[in-house]
From TrEMBL, chain A:
It is an enzyme of class 1 (oxidoreductase). This is 3-methyl-2-oxobutanoate dehydrogenase (2-methylpropanoyl-transferring). One of its GO terms (biological process) is response to nutrient. It catalyses: N(6)-[(R)-lipoyl]-L-lysyl-[protein] + 3-methyl-2-oxobutanoate + H(+) = N(6)-[(R)-S(8)-2-methylpropanoyldihydrolipoyl]-L-lysyl-[protein] + CO2. Its cofactor is thiamine diphosphate. The keyword Nucleotide-binding does not apply. One of its GO terms (cellular component) is branched-chain alpha-ketoacid dehydrogenase complex. Keywords: Oxidoreductase. Its EC number is 1.2.4.4. It comes from Cucumis sativus.
UniProtKB/TrEMBL annotation, chain B:
It is an enzyme of class 1 (oxidoreductase). Keywords: Metal-binding, Mitochondrion, Oxidoreductase, Potassium, Transit peptide. Its main location: mitochondrion. It holds the Pfam family E1_dh. GO terms for biological process: branched-chain amino acid catabolic process. It catalyses: N(6)-[(R)-lipoyl]-L-lysyl-[protein] + 3-methyl-2-oxobutanoate + H(+) = N(6)-[(R)-S(8)-2-methylpropanoyldihydrolipoyl]-L-lysyl-[protein] + CO2. GO terms for molecular function: branched-chain 2-oxo acid dehydrogenase activity; metal ion binding. One of its GO terms (cellular component) is branched-chain alpha-ketoacid dehydrogenase complex. Its EC number is 1.2.4.4. Its cofactor is thiamine diphosphate. This is 3-methyl-2-oxobutanoate dehydrogenase (2-methylpropanoyl-transferring). Heterotetramer of alpha and beta chains. It is found in: Mitochondrion matrix. It comes from Cucumis sativus (Cucumber).
Length: 348, 481
C-alpha cells in the first residue's frame, strides 16, 4: 500500500509539472500564440465574445469584479457594467434571466460559480432552455444562452466544490454539453458554444484553471462542437474521456506505452450530442475500450458510451470481443489520493 | 436594559484569512474558494453587525469587525443616557436608525392593503375614482373580446367533454384581467404568459382558427402539435409560448425586459402567473432580479384564490401577493381583477412607470377561478358550489362591464344576442375545420430540438420510420409520414 501511495505521489507530481498537450504526439502544442493558462484562455474568449458582438452579455455571481476564478477579469471595465454584471445569488434566477435575454436575440453568457451549485437552475435548464425552441415550433429560441460552470475535483474541494454533474445534463435533448481539456481547447470551444444557435452547458475543469498552460493563439478562433478529438493514436486499446480526466489518462497512456501497450486516446469534447463515429472507428481498430470519468460510475455518461459502442461494434457485427472498463474518481476531499490509485487501475 | 454602543471598527479581520487549512494547496484556487465562502457569508455578518452590536462586552471581537468600507456607526457613543434617536448605522442602502425598543415588525398590518376599483359590483363608476376614461372604441373591443373568450371557453370545454380534444383550461371569471390588461399595453410589449391568459392573444388578433388549430394539434398549429391544448404561442403577437411548468416563465420576463432596456425600446415585458406560482422560487428570483437590474417588467398575479385544490390559506400567510413586492423593492398595487376598468387603469399606469422609470411593477389582481382548474379537475370536490355560483353570477366581470357600457348607451340586448350567436357559430365551424385538418408530419417530432437535427436524432428518426414500416397497423393513419 505504501509503495502504491508513493507511486501515486510521484504521478501527481509529474502531472502537476507536466506541460499540457493538445496534440497527438503528446508534446507541448505550438499554436503560434501566447503561453497562457486555462482561466486566461476563458477570459480571452469572453473578451472576444463581447468585442465581436454588441449583443453579448456576461453575468452571474461575482462576475463584476472578475469572478472567484478570475475568468471575467477586466470585462466590466472594458465593456461596461450594463453588459458585464453581478446578479443576486440565485442560480435559477441567473439561468431564467439568461433564457429571457437570449430569447430576445442576445448572446447570454451566464456563469454558475460552481457546477455543484447548478441544481437550483436544473428546472430552468431542463424544462425551459432545452424545450424553448421545440415547444414553440421554432418560433422562439434561447440558442444564445451559454452557461459556464467550473466542475470537477481539485483535491481539496469536498462534496460541494468537486462534483462532475455532466451526466444529468446529457440526458436532456435540446441542450449541448461541452467540456474542454486545455487552454487552447477552452478558448476555441467556448467561442463556438457562445455563437452556437442552441443553449449550451459548458463545464470548465477548475483543476486546470491555473495548472494547465499551453500556447493559445490570441486571435478569434473556434473549434467544432460534436466532434471528438483523437489526441493520441494507438492500436491496442481506445481510451475515451473528457475534461481534466484526460490529463490522468494521458499519463496512463505514457506509462502503458512503457509496458508495450499502444493506446489511442480520444477527447470527446462535446458530450451532447456526442461523436459516436470517431469512437466507433477507433474501437473497430483497437477492439478494446476504456472510458474514464470523474463522475460516479452508476448512470454516468460512460454507460451511454459503452452501451452505444457495444451495440454498434459488437451486437450488430459480432466481429470483435470488446472489453469495456469504466474508471471513475470519487470527489471526497480526504480521499483524493484514491483517484491516483485509479490511474494505476487504468494502467493495469 | 443598559446598553453600550461599542466602537465597531476597532479591528479589521482580513477578508482573505485562510481559516480552513484544507484550502491551502499548491493551487491559488484555494484562495478563491475561501473568498467565495466569505462572500456567501456576508449577509450573515451584516446581520450580526446590526443586531449583536448592542451586546455584552464579552462578545468575541470578530463580531465587531468591519466587513464593508461603507458600513460604520454614524455617531459613536459610550454613555447610556445619550439620545439614541440620532444614532445611525451607515449601511448599504441608506442610514439605519438604532432604537432601544425591542420590537418586531408585525407579520401583517391590521388593515389589509386596499383594492383599487373603478366600477362597483353593479357596473357604476365609484365616486372620486381618478381613472382614465376609455374611449367607446376601446371599451367595445374590451367587451367583445371578453365575450369571445367566455364563448370560446364554453365551446372548447364542451369539445373536450365530447372527447374531441384531450384537455382544456378555461379563463372563466378572469376575463377582465386577461383582456383589460392587454388593452392597456402596446403590441411592442412582450407577453410572457402562464396558461390562463388566452384573452391577451384574443386582444392581439390571434384568430379563433389559430386557437382551434393549436387545441386540435393540426398542421396549422404553430407548435406543430407538440404541446397539450392551450399552450399557445405566437411570434407575430409577441407572445412567448406557454409551458405547463408553474412560474418558470417569470424570470424570462426579466431577462427580456433587460434586453428591451438595453435596446432603449419604448416597451416593457409583462408576465402573468397565479397565486400558487408565487410560492415557487422563480417568482422570488424574478422579483429580486428585476429590482436589482432595474428591468422594465410588469408582474401580473391573477390571485384567483385556488391553485388546483389548494386555497390561498394553505398557500401563504401574508396579506396576499401585493405585499411581497415591497420586500424586494418593487412598487406594487392591488386591483379588483373583476373590474375591467380598474385592471386597465392599473396596467396602463404600471406600464408608464415601468418604461419611464425603468423599474419593475407588481400588480395583484383579486379574482376567482370560476371554472375548474382544468378539464382534468372537478372543483366541486373541494369547494362549495354556492361559492362558485356567487362568483360566477354576482361577481362576473363580463356582466359588470356590460352594465357599464349599457349605462353609456353603447350596448343593447339585441347586440348582445347577435354577438354571442355569431361567435358560437364561428367557433363551431372552426372546431370542425381544425378537427378535419391533417396532423403534422412525423418528421416534426425530431426537428427544432436543436437548430439542426444532430446525428443522434437522425438515427432515432430512422429507427422510428423502420418500426412504422414493420408495424404499420400500430401507427395512426392521420399522421403523414
Amino acid at each position: 500500500m505504501a509503495s502504491v501511495l508513493r507511486r501515486s505521489q510521484t504521478v501527481l507530481n509529474s502531472l502537476c509539472r507536466r506541460q499540457f498537450s493538445a496534440s497527438p504526439d503528446g508534446n507541448l502544442t505550438t499554436h503560434a500564440g501566447k503561453s497562457m493558462n486555462l482561466y486566461s484562455a476563458i477570459n480571452q474568449a469572453l473578451h472576444i465574445a463581447l468585442e465581436t458582438d454588441p449583443r453579448a452579455y456576461v453575468f452571474g455571481e461575482d462576475v463584476g469584479f472578475g469572478g472567484v476564478f478570475r475568468c471575467t477579469t477586466g470585462l466590466a471595465d472594458r465593456y461596461g457594467k450594463d453588459r458585464v454584471f453581478n446578479t443576486p445569488l440565485c442560480e435559477q434566477g441567473i439561468v431564467g434571466f439568461g433564457i429571457g435575454l437570449a430569447a430576445m436575440g442576445n448572446r447570454a453568457i451566464a456563469e454558475i460559480q460552481f457546477a455543484d451549485y447548478i441544481y437550483p437552475a436544473f428546472d430552468q435548464i431542463v424544462n425551459e432552455a432545452a424545450k424553448f425552441r421545440y415547444r414553440s415550433g421554432n418560433q422562439f429560441n434561447c440558442g444564445g444562452l451559454t452557461i459556464r460552470a467550473p466542475y470537477g475535483a481539485v483535491g481539496h474541494g469536498g462534496h460541494y466544490h468537486s462534483q462532475s454533474p455532466e451526466a444529468f445534463f446529457c440526458h436532456v435533448p435540446g441542450i449541448k454539453v461541452v467540456i474542454p481539456r486545455s487552454p487552447y481547447q477552452a478558448k476555441g470551444l467556448l467561442l463556438s458554444c457562445i455563437r452556437d444557435e442552441n443553449p449550451v452547458v459548458f463545464f470548465e475543469p477548475k483543476w486546470l484553471y491555473r495548472l494547465a498552460v499551453e500556447e493559445v493563439p490570441e486571435d478569434d478562433f473556434m473549434l467544432p462542437l460534436s466532434q471528438a478529438d483523437v489526441i493520441r493514436e494507438g492500436s491496442d486499446i481506445t481510451l475515451v474521456g473528457w475534461g481534466a480526466q484526460l490529463s490522468v489518462m494521458e499519463q496512463a497512456c505514457i506509462d502503458a506505452e512503457k509496458e508495450g501497450i499502444s493506446c489511442e486516446l480520444i477527447d470527446l469534447r462535446t458530450l451532447l450530442p456526442w461523436d459516436k463515429e470517431t469512437v466507433e472507428a477507433s474501437v473497430r481498430k483497437t477492439g478494446r475500450l476504456l472510458i474514464s470519468h470523474e463522475a460516479p460510475v452508476t448512470g454516468g455518461f460512460g454507460a451511454e458510451i459503452s452501451a452505444s459502442i457495444v451495440e454498434r461494434c459488437f451486437l450488430r457485427q459480432g466481429e470483435q470481443n470488446i472489453n469495456v472498463l469504466h474508471v471513475v474518481r470519487p470527489f471526497s476531499s480526504l480521499h483524493n489520493p484514491i483517484h491516483i490509485l485509479l490511474l494505476c487501475l487504468c494502467i493495469d | 436594559m443598559a446598553f453600550q454602543v461599542r466602537k465597531a471598527t476597532t479591528k479589521i479581520i482580513p477578508h482573505f484569512r485562510n481559516g480552513m487549512g484544507f484550502f491551502l494547496g499548491p493551487l491559488e484556487m484555494g484562495f478563491f474558494n475561501s473568498y467565495s465562502t466569505h462572500l456567501r457569508n456576508t449577509s450573515f455578518s451584516a446581520h450580526k453587525i446590526g443586531t449583536r452590536i448592542l451586546g455584552s462586552e464579552n462578545m468575541p471581537t470578530h463580531l465587531f469587525s468591519r466587513r464593508f468600507e461603507s458600513i460604520k456607526v454614524g455617531k459613536q457613543l459610550n454613555c447610556v443616557n445619550d439620545d439614541r434617536d440620532d444614532q445611525v448605522l451607515e449601511f448599504p442602502g441608506g442610514k439605519v436608525k438604532f432604537t432601544s425598543q425591542l420590537s418586531f415588525i408585525p407579520d401583517r398590518e391590521e388593515e389589509r392593503i386596499p383594492c383599487f376599483r373603478v366600477l362597483d359590483d353593479n357596473g357604476r363608476p365609484c365616486m372620486y375614482s381618478n381613472f382614465t376614461q376609455v374611449s367607446k372604441e376601446v371599451a367595445m373591443k374590451i367587451y367583445h373580446d371578453m365575450v369571445t373568450l367566455q364563448t370560446m371557453d364554453t365551446i372548447f370545454y364542451e369539445a373536450q367533454r365530447q372527447g374531441r380534444i384531450s384537455f382544456y383550461v378555461t379563463s372563466l371569471g378572469e376575463e377582465a384581467i386577461n383582456v383589460a390588461s392587454a388593452a392597456a399595453l402596446s403590441l411592442d410589449d412582450l407577453i410572457v404568459p402562464q396558461y390562463r391568459e388566452a384573452g391577451v392573444l384574443i386582444w392581439r388578433g390571434f384568430t379563433l382558427k389559430e386557437f382551434a388549430s393549436q387545441c386540435f394539434g393540426n398542421k396549422y398549429d404553430y407548435c406543430k402539435g407538440r404541446q397539450m391544448p392551450v399552450h399557445y404561442g405566437s411570434k407575430r403577437h409577441n407572445y412567448f409560448t406557454v409551458a405547463s411548468t408553474i412560474a418558470s416563465q417569470i424570470p424570462h420576463a426579466v431577462g427580456a425586459a433587460y434586453s428591451m432596456k438595453m435596446d432603449k425600446k419604448d416597451a416593457c415585458a409583462v408576465t402573468y402567473f397565479g397565486d400558487g406560482g408565487t410560492s415557487e422560487g422563480d417568482f422570488h428570483a424574478a422579483l429580486n432580479f428585476a429590482a436589482v437590474l432595474e428591468a422594465p417588467v410588469i408582474f401580473i398575479c391573477r390571485n384567483n384564490g385556488w391553485a388546483i385544490s389548494t386555497p390561498i390559506s394553505d398557500q401563504f400567510r401574508s396579506d396576499g401577493v401585493v405585499v411581497k413586492g415591497q420586500a424586494y423593492g418593487v412598487r406594487s398595487i392591488r386591483v379588483d381583477g373583476n373590474d375591467a376598468l380598474a385592471v386597465y387603469n392599473a396596467v396602463r399606469a404600471a406600464r408608464e412607470m415601468a418604461i419611464q422609470e425603468q423599474r419593475p411593477i407588481l400588480i395583484e389582481a383579486l379574482t376567482y377561478r370560476a371554472g375548474h382548474h382544468t378539464t382534468s379537475d372537478d372543483s366541486t370536490r373541494y369547494r362549495p358550489a354556492q361559492e362558485m355560483e356567487w362568483w360566477r353570477v354576482a361577481m362576473d366581470p363580463v356582466s359588470r362591464f356590460r352594465k357599464w357600457i349599457e349605462s353609456n348607451g353603447w350596448w343593447s340586448n339585441e347586440a348582445e344576442a347577435e354577438l354571442r350567436s355569431r361567435l358560437r357559430k364561428q367557433l363551431l365551424e372552426e372546431i370542425q375545420l381544425a378537427e378535419r385538418s391533417e396532423k403534422p408530419p412525423v418528421a416534426d417530432a425530431f426537428t427544432d430540438v436543436y437548430d439542426v437535427p444532430p446525428s443522434n436524432l437522425q438515427e432515432q428518426e430512422k429507427w422510428l420510420r423502420k418500426t412504422i414500416k414493420t408495424h404499420p397497423q400500430d401507427y395512426p393513419s392521420n399522421f403523414p409520414l
